[in-house]
Amino acid sequence: xxxxxxxxxxxxxxxxxxxxxxxxxxxxxxxxxxxxxxxxxxxxxxxxxxxxxxxxxxxxxxxxxxx
Length: 67
Known about the structure:
With about 70 residues, the chain is mainly alpha-helical. The chain contains 2 helices and no strands. It starts with 6 loop residues before the first helix and ends with a helix.
């Protein structure tokens, strides 16, 4: 994943891959590449969510300390 991609773009691409798989839109020749790409997208999304959660928790902790 490049730094230019964001969570929403990755999530939308992942959804498209899933939809294509469910509808049989992906040929056997493409299947391996699509699964590899989906794996990278999932990893990116998980990392982004974890990072965002950590940021929010830090902000909330800072707010508590300032009260």
